[in-house]
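This part of the workshop introduces the protein records we will be handling. Getting from the letters to the tokens is the skill we practise here. An example says more than a description, so a record of this kind follows:
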Amino acid sequence: MQTQLSPEEISKDRFFAKLSALSEEMVEEHGKDFAMGALVMAAQWIAKAQTGGPQRDTTH
């Protein structure tokens, strides 16, 4: 039985693919420590809502 993905799941999959490709590129050019550090910093910025862009309502 195959289930159909929702539009949200399809969108999330696209973002995971982009993150994967970006992570691989960072590791290839600058190593694992840089890639992990950059991703941790990005997560901290998101957690603190300091991304510099418009704020999205995630309460729905």
